[in-house]
Amino acid sequence: MADYKNFTVETDADGIALVTWDMPDRSMNVFTEQVMSELDSIVDQVTADVAVKGAVITSGKETFSGGADLAMLQKMLGLFQKENSRDPDHAIRLLFDNVGRMGQLFRKLETCGKPWVSAINGTCMGGAFEMSLACHGRIAADSDAVKMALPEVKVGIFPGAGGTQRVPRLTDQQQALQMLTSGQNLTPQRAKAMGLIHEIAEPKKLVAAAKAMIKGGLKPVQPWDEKGFKLPGGPIYSAAGANLWPPAIAILRRETYGNYPAASAILKCVYEGLLVPFDTGLKIEQRYFTEILRTKEAAMMIRSLFVSLQELNKGARRPEGVPPTKFRKIGIIGAGFMGAGIAYVTAKAGIPVVLIDRDMEAAEKGKAHSDKLVSEQIKKGRAKAEDKERLLSLITPSADYADLAGSDLVIEAVFEDSEVKKATTEKAEAALKPSSVFASNTSTIPITSLAKNSARPKNFVGIHFFSPVDKMMLVEIILGKKTGEKALAVAIDYVRAIKKTPIVVNDTRGFYVNRCVLRYMSEAFKMLIEGVPAAMIENAARAAGMPVGPLALTDETAIDLAQKIMKQTIRDLGEKAVDPEQMKLIDTMVDTHGRFGRKNGKGFYDYPEKPAKKHLWPGLKDLYKQRNPDKIDYEELKQRFLTVIALEAARVMEEGIVTDPREADVGSILAFGFAPYTGGALSYIDGIGAKEFVRIAKTLRKKYGAEFKAPKLLLDMVEKGETFYQRFDPYAKEEAKKAA
Ligand code: NAD
User: Which GO molecular function, any one, fits this protein according to its record (predicted)?
Assistant: First the structure.
């Protein structure tokens, strides 16, 4: 057979071709234009060569494949946009044809007349799983490393290469819809139970078992190409269909509030596609895919949730020239709520941890948190007893600062008190080499002022985690005035080692995330004071795309904490810095009613014993005269939330606190779930256009106050017709380098 760059093809004595996908220049196989054209030739050869009876396709890497290269989709869109200004009809036709290529290739493989088996040896995502579904046999290795999914919906698109047609022809419609609209991972066992794969094999015997399927006479015809094919679970127009579809549409609405066009396109593809023959179904899918790819949501989500996220995770902001850090030991001081969580995620990454507190009992208690978390994982089948043993053996509790000696990095998470932090820094540095980096997890004290306690402020940095540490994927790295490049590189290396996403933020009150979050909460307090019913406030925020309502969020982080922050702000910045009405609301909640939030079971919500669900505290109605909900502009409530946060993000950019729009966008989604379909707080403005956004902000400012004042930066962007990604082009440096 011919030579290929991305595949090897070896035909054995039984005439079975083993097609091994192993891209030489990538750590993971992905579908690129070249991969597609090579696979196309391989299908042709397998079909034409009489000596070949069938083919097994597998991967030469640990993973099977990550699916389509999204850069390829971005290129198609680029072509479309270019052509669209010249000849819109032709542009759409071109896009339609381009997006159909992958689906046609898989259809060709499926109807080539010879059996193909996909031997899934590791993670198999998106387009690669769609290709596997087009194979006549599918077999997965029995390993925790094997995960299969069609996760496209998570980046604003959907499986457009036959996925929406093959899945509901292999499994019942309810399971199909759930899998396609959630993008959930399937284990081999789950995929087999759903009928999506045929067999599970021992990893070492995977290829042999795949070949055996062909030798055993696997028919090179898919069920839907057989005469008399019947849909599993029955046709759309049946009693089962009538039971499924009306609630399915309602559930989608409940989950997405209509904000995710790709999710509703999936429902349309499945519903319409199952009413017609398979090839027509593929055409329907191709049409919807062409439409969805052109949505703002797809462009923004692909950019932030795939491209930028990956770039940040790979260390896009890491200074060049600093050698990578190999962590041999990390010290954590303060084994409380945060320190215990930081110890867990560090040990989980395989790094030895010394966990210090004021006495051994407190340090042990911090370690017990890891025991609890890993034990829960074991109960859920997500970890094994050996994982627990290994993880716990990596955490050494101690009350002796001398044990910090030899740490590459120390993170302090002691009380939020400048004096305690000062003493901690001094004691720790006495035990450390001058080259080790010292980080503070403070949430409010400027890093520059804490660095004054350090004998080597160059090696002093902020590493700001969010709670709960094990669940929150974002970490803010805060640069003090004197923080050096090495400290930044070490901090980024650490955040990458624990598999979280770092964003780099310059020192300021509240850093980036909390500044935005406080705006979100404060807007809700204002609405309460205006007499907007609390349920309407929470619902409007969720309908705008926020995962947690602002009152629920305040309860989670604690209302007395909000009170402390407001009081501290008044002390630091003066009375005018906090709205007295809002201060009164929070004082009433905490001081008059003893409502601290979820932690004491009483906040904006009541938290009755399980299984009863939390519900809004009825007493809220008595705090302010309630307005008639019919007279309240619900769309405006939604707009207020997104606008007030986006404005704060714009101010943060104006002040140079965040300098890269990718970080502001990704940070806003990972930290507080800023309406993901917008692509993040800045992409929200870019998506609307600065001009229209400023117009909206001006209208809201007149009605609701100064928090809606657009910063000069935005006015300037309006004048110049710029977007954030043009003005703060994150790739400008790279491009200038390339050009030079
Ligand atoms: P916490 O009170 O739960 O824990 C603090 C721990 O530090 C306690 O176990 C205490 O015994 C220990 N400690 C105090 N002085 C010490 C000393 N001199 N030496 C060793 N240990 C000492 O507090 P927390 O909520 O974990 O917060 C810790 C830090 O993290 C604070 O700076 C806070 O602002 C920051 N932070 C908190 C959150 C949050 O959601 N709670 C989020 C981000 C950052």
Answer: long-chain (3S)-3-hydroxyacyl-CoA dehydrogenase (NAD+) activity
